[in-house]
């Protein structure tokens, strides 16, 4: 995370494969290097934004997130497609971090399926263009770590 142009990381894999463990370990390493880190599950981030939108505090929250050297979004593309406001927020946040800070996104769906999860094709194109062209990609495979031995 100390390179001249910060990169992103996309992690995909089935439930229980170790995505959360991996991204949290990377977040911990960033903290140990005294970098600022924020971790959100996608559903929690969506709820937080909806709450802040009703209070008109989205801009302050966005500015705080943009100051973090590493933003981790877990469980991306889970559940229903995001509303237009959330899709737009994701685009603005990812775009503003390009070349300035790093973002890790983890999901059960492969990143090639994320486009169809986002309802608005133009916003989906923009988000995926920024993520795919500035990211390392890891697809975890294997059995669930939660399986009984």
Per CATH, the superfamily is P-loop containing nucleotide triphosphate hydrolases
Which H/E pattern describes the elements?
A: EHEHHEHEHHE
Examine the coordinates and then state which fold CATH places here, giving the name of the CATH topology. Rossmann fold
> What ranges have pLDDT less than 50 throughout 5 or more consecutive residues?
none
Integer tally of domains: 1
Radius of gyration, in angstroms, nearest whole number: 15 Å
Helix count equals: 6
The second-level CATH architecture is 3-Layer(aba) Sandwich
Shape: globular
Average pLDDT for all residues = 88
User: Helical residue percent?
Assistant: 40-55%
User: Separation of termini?
Assistant: 36 Å
Question: Which CATH class is shown?
Answer: Alpha Beta
Binned strand content: 15-25%
Q: How many beta strands in the DSSP annotation?
A: 5
Strand order of the largest sheet: 2-3-4-1-5
The largest β sheet comes out as: 5 strands, parallel
- Class by SSE composition: alpha/beta
Describe the structure.
There is one protein chain. This protein has a single domain, classed as Rossmann fold, CATH 3.40.50. With 149 residues, the protein is an alpha/beta fold. Helices cover 46% and strands 19% of the residues. It is built from 6 helices and 5 strands. The termini are far apart. Helix 4 (84-97) runs parallel beside helix 6. The longest helix has 14 residues, at 19-32.
